[in-house]
Structure formats: structure tokens, C-alpha cells
Amino acid sequence: MGLQITQVLSLYFITLFSLFSRYNSLKNDPPSYDYLEQVEAAGYDPQAYPFYFSTIEDHGKLKDDVMRTMNEVLGFQRLGNEVDIITSTSTKQVNVDDFGATGDGTDGTEAFEKSWKEACSSKGAVVLEVPERKFYLLKPIRFSGPCKSNLTIKIYGTIEASEDRSDYKEDSRHWLIFDRVDNLLIEGGGTINGKGNIWWQNSCKINKHHPCKDAPTALTFNKCKNLVVQNLKIQDAQQIHVSFEKCTNVEASRLTITAPKKSPNTDGIHITHTQNILITNSVIGTGDDCISIVSGSENVQAMDITCGPGHGISIGSLGSKNSKAYVSGVIVDGAKLSGTTNGVRIKTWQGGSGSASNIIFQNIEMYNVTNPIIIDQNYCDQDKPCKEQSSAVQVKNVVYNNIKGTSASEVAINFDCSKTHPCQGIVLRNVNLQEQGDETVKAICNNVKLSERENVFPECP
To answer: Residue 449 in 3-state DSSP?
Structure first.
């Protein structure tokens, strides 16, 4: 099952991102008019998406078939016979209240641990329920797998974090963590509240007199396969709200993630060393990146995202402390950003190595966004100035298509690329970014090699 999924998704992204190797040849030796007419009739614009096409004449059908298969393998009810919870007539029900949880705001940690043990050790289909209209206080918990069951967790009520920082002495990085749990569905419309205010107050980013220390991620998924997280509200995380780490085949949808604009390091969704992940139809507004994608992540798709406040949608940072970093196959298709400090951003440190490649940002609306389009290969998030270094993470094959809106700053497009490893294969099409007020915006384009620019404002000098 896992091998099939990997093969199908790899085929899709290989086909989709064959673009840049084919792009110049298509320009020099374009297909016949009849071929393009057929493609346009199928709903594609080959001028806007030249990289979607190969010499295979039925590529549109191939893409549709592969996308259909992607949906089949990523959707919870579509993971195959192993995960058939909804239709099963022998589903076992486990309720946290039956194990001693009261839901009145008192500590329910032990009851959740016992109910998890029961659910995970049972065979077949199991539903673990957190009842509605109740508040469950939890200390840090690790929900460990592998489980014998195909497990659904229904969160109807509210789960709240302990605000006693001494409860996190054993593990200061995590509050709720699901570790090596496969075929897992979490849903229910309930709330996960990190109660992060006590952590923000003691952050060195809020008060420079405090030492810089880690704070817990509210909800972590580590080494999980065939995972669906949907229809949840996650708020006020101690630091990151949701983190997918070393996971495979993930669908996250209908999530509402919120924290105050000034809450430090409260990324909405963080993705690291994760392959084949689809994020859809989610509203994210926090004090940091709405979505952050870092090293080891491949085949990442985000669609229908509403972002703001926050720092926008970011790839990186990559290459810190002279490290190697690789990110590839990222599509952000359909996003609305409002009042964010960045729009769509790629950020890398000097001294790193590796690459960020085959990336598409398209169909994006921005309102009053500072730095709407930015590639920063000289990223430096430290008090002391970063020294100039010759090595860099290579940024290449990045498409910006159909991006419109207003900039809160004079510089609407900022390509600050490396002198020794300039940005390559950058495509700008149908980009229109205007000043929020009456002034005219501009583009800064340092050390960037543009493959194409058409219908772009502001233009690179």
C-alpha cells in the first residue's frame, strides 16, 4: 500500500515538474496549433502553464488520472481496506470519560493515557471520543504507536494545555505528540488550546532580558503514515501550532488556527522531512508563518488557504549553520493573504547548501501585504550580523503566476539572491501588485535569472 502511494505520487510530481527541462524546447519548437487548441479546450492555458506539458499528447488525461489516484490514496475513506472505519459495523467505541476524565477543567492526563492504551491496543476499527461541551486539562502526552487498530479520534469538546511550565520539564518541545501512528484520522470540530500566553511572556523575543528557550509545539505528528487531520480549531499554541515531522501521505483540511499577531514563533502549520502532504481549505492567523516548509519536504500542496495575520507562506529558513537542505515539489494554489509581513517567501541562510526547487505559487490574492513576493538568500535571524559566505542553498525553477493585490511596502517584488549561486529559472506571469496608497511600487532583482516575465507589475529593472 505504502509503495503504491509513493509510486503514484512520485509519477504525478515528476510529470508536473518536468516543466523546466522541457520549457525552453517548447519555446523554440512549439507544438502545433491543433494540439494547443485541444489542450485549451480541456481547460488548460498552455501560455500560462507551459511547464505542465510534455510530448505525451494525452498528458491532460494523465494528470487527471494521477490526481484522481492522489485523492484516492490521501482521503481517509480512500486509504484502502486497512482503513474502513466509517462503514464498519464492528467499530469499537472508547470514551475518555469512561476512564476517569471529568471534563470540568481538572487534570485529565491519566484518563487520556488509559483510553489511548485501550484504543491503540484494540484490533480492528476504533473510535476514541472526546465529548462535546467539556474542557479537558492535559499535561504533556505522547500517544505512541504502532497501534493494532485503525483509529479515529473524535474531538468534540475542548482540550486545554497545562499552564504550569514545570509540567514540561521532561520534554520542553512537545505538548501533544502522536508518534509512529499509521492510518489515523483526527476530526470532530472541537478545540485544542495551547494556553500559550505564559510562554509568550517569557520569550526572549518579547522580553530580551529573558533567556531564549524552547517552548512546546501544541500538536506534533512524528513518523506517521496515512494521516488525516480535519475540522479542528487549534489556538494559542505555546510555540508552533501543528507540526508534521517525517510523515508520509498526509491530508490536513478545514483547520482554523489562530493566535495573537504578536505571539512569538507560533507558526500555523510546520512541515519538515515530510512527503506527500495536501493542505486545503484552512484559515490561519498567528504571530509567525501561516505555513512553513523546511528541509526534507517533498510533494507539498496547499490549496484554498486564508492567511493573516502572520508572516505569510514560507519555504525555509534553509541552510542554517552551514547545513544541507532540500525542498522540492511545492505547489501553493489558491491563497488569500491579508496584512501579513510577507506574502510568498523563500528564505535561506548564507553558508548552506542543497536546493529549493520546482516550486509554484499561483492564484494568490494579497491585501496590504509587506514583501508580497520575496526570495531572500541572505536571511539572518540573529542579533549579530551574519558574515558573508560563498556557499548557498540553490533556488531554482520557481513560478509566480496570477498573483494580484496590494503591497504595504514600496518593494513589492524582492529577489535578493546569492552572488555565487544566483536564483535560476524564475518565471513571472500575470503578476499585478500595486501600492496600498498612492505611491508606486518597485521590484528589486539582484542576482536572479528570469526564464520568463509577461504581464508583470512592477517589473524587474
So the answer is: strand
Q: Is the pLDDT of residue 199 over 80?
A: yes
Most distant CA atoms of the chain, gap in Å:
71
Q: How far apart are CA 258 and CA 203, in angstroms?
A: 19
Our answer to whether residue 288 is catalytic in this structure is: yes
Say which of 182, 288, 289, 416 is annotated catalytic: 288
pLDDT, tens digit, for every residue of 120-161? 999 999 999 999 999 999 999 999 999 999 999 999 999 999
From 59, 174, 241, 311, active-site residue:
311
Pairing of strands 442-446, 191-193: unpaired
* Inter-residue contact 295 to 272 (CB < 8 Å): yes
CA dihedral over 52, 54, 60, 63, signed as positive or negative: negative
For the question of residue 311 being annotated catalytic, the response is: yes
**Which residues sit opposite 195 in a β-bridge?**
none
Selection from 248, 254, 244 nearest residue 219 by Cα: 244
**How far apart (Å, rounded) are the C-alpha atoms in residues 60 and 53?**
8
